[in-house]
From TrEMBL:
Location of the TRAP C4-dicarboxylate transport system permease DctM subunit domain: 12-428
Name of the protein: Tripartite ATP-independent transporter DctM subunit
Pfam families assigned: DctM
Molecular-function GO terms, alphabetical: transmembrane transporter activity
Keywords, ordered alphabetically: Cell inner membrane, Cell membrane, Membrane, Transmembrane, Transmembrane helix
Transmembrane segments: 6-39, 59-79, 99-128, 140-164, 170-194, 224-246, 252-268, 289-312, 324-354, 366-392, 412-433
Principal subcellular localization: membrane
Localization per record: Cell inner membrane
């Protein structure tokens, strides 16, 4: 059987198994096992054991449970509500102020937790009733929560980045530092969009009555110091130690986890029951991620050993579109896959195939990785497999329909594409911070 046919059969089998509903990790490992036994032989089992050992002994991946634990503790400390209240006081008098406060709170909370689901659910519960009370446009309110929550995969510390970096064989620190600027730029674009749209049509986002009017300057300053400053300090503690070379990402994750516990203690939310729940949820989430990473590592090993990697590489390089045309084709594939798969499945399938091609085309691997991570945000907003939409619909007020949420995310998808164009024209926006930190 030709290598080309094996490649087609292997990828088709994987897609079919995933679409049938089997977990990503088992799908990857299962397809690799079947094709490995048929075309390599029984000794392929030793490859599986080797890949498992390499994954479980990967020092960088230890940061995953640490960041997950940090995010869960922060979620349980009631930080999101405090953040929203403080930012609402500062923005409530503006047209669209509640939606702006939602995006800004999502951005900060996402940076503290790195988990999209926690951000969308928590902010949806807190902000949606307030925006419905002041008769905000339903798509406007829904889009702000979904798009703001999706920033959690981009703004560090991000679990997605910790999974992506080893797969792409790039520096975790470079991606964590590099993702901060595009995350802030996207948040700023979202805020500008809401502000301009509500300024043109005030009925879409009326100002909240008495938003911050009865608060003195000292009261506002106290709210900022109590609610916003602690989480900003935590974020800087994590990213600052990486940027200045004081700690590797794993050590920075440990610092963040410890700081999150201190933060919960300061807010008087730290209890034995909360720590036990956080530990159990961390173990479950981390086990899922490790299972997928092990399965993907085994799949990639078999795929490359059978020569399928060369087939994909030569096929993509043979496209008659030039380097940028090939790049756009790869991003379109990621966007299309995002309609049906979650982010971890997309990373494990396409990143090992696309990254070598991008490097051969002359693109910086760190820049290419950061652009892919931005593109991967679309997987949380594009139907039918749009996790943020499902999360929000599950907790949104009854008057908010699924159609409202779908309409609400469209402008933010367009803003993501605009940001991609900006970062393509000016790649140093993404590479400045990693270079300044000496990570590339």
């Amino acid at each position: 059987m030709s290598v080309e046919l094996i490649t087609v059969l292997m990828l088709t089998s994987l897609i079919l198994v995933i679409m049938m509903g089997f977990p990503i990790g088992f799908s990857l490992a299962g397809v690799a096992t079947v094709f490995g036994l048929i075309f390599v032989g029984p000794h392929i089992a030793s490859t599986f054991m080797l890949r498992m050992h390499v994954t479980l002994s990967n020092y960088t991946l230890i940061a995953i449970p640490l960041f997950v634990f940090m995010g869960i503790v922060i979620e349980k400390s009631g930080l999101a509500g405090r953040l929203y209240d403080a930012i609402y006081v500062l923005t409530g008098r503006l047209k669209g102020g509640l939606a702006i406060a939602t995006v800004l709170t999502c951005a900060i909370f996402a940076a503290a937790t790195g988990v999209v689901g926690a951000t969308v659910v928590t902010m949806g519960i807190i902000s949606m009733p307030a925006m419905m009370k002041y008769r905000y446009d339903k798509p406007m309110a829904s889009g702000a929560v979904c798009a703001g929550g999706a920033l959690g995969i981009l703004i560090p510390p991000s679990i997605l980045i910790l999974v992506y970096a080893p797969v792409a064989n790039v520096s975790v620190g470079a991606l964590l530092i590099g993702a901060f600027v595009p995350g802030m730029i996207l948040a700023l674009l979202y805020v500008l969009y809401i502000g301009i749209r509500c300024f043109i049509n005030p009925e879409m986002g009326p100002s909240a009555a008495d938003g911050g009017v009865h608060y003195t300057f000292w009261q506002k300053s106290r709210m900022f110091c109590v609610s916003v400053l602690p989480v900003l300090t935590l974020i800087l503690a994590v990213l600052g130690t990486i940027f200045f070379g004081l700690a590797a990402p794993t050590e920075a994750a440990a610092i963040g986890a410890f700081a999150a516990v201190l933060l919960a203690l300061g807010y008087r939310k730290l209890t034995a029951a909360m720590l036990v729940e956080a530990a159990i949820r961390t173990a479950r989430t981390s086990a899922m991620v490790y299972l997928v990473v092990i399965g993907a590592s085994f799949f990639t090993s078999v795929f490359v050993r059978l020569g399928c990697g060369r087939v994909i590489e030569s096929s993509i390089l043979g496209l008659p579109f030039g380097p940028w045309g090939v790049l756009i084709v790869m991003w379109l594939i990621i966007i299309l896959m995002g309609c049906f798969l979650d982010w971890i499945g997309i990373i494990m399938i396409v990143v090992p195939l696309f990254t070598p091609v991008a490097v051969k085309l002359g693109f910086d691997p760190v820049w290419f990785s950061l652009m892919n991570i931005i593109v991967l945000q679309t997987s949380f907003l594009t139907p039918p497999f749009a996790l943020t939409i499902f999360y929000l619909k599950g907790i949104a007020p009854p008057e908010v329909s699924l159609a409202d949420i779908y309409r609400g995310v469209v402008p933010y998808l367009l803003l993501m594409l605009a940001a991609l164009l900006l970062f393509s024209l000016f790649p140093d926006i993404l590479l400045f911070m990693p270079r300044a930190a000496g990570l590339i």
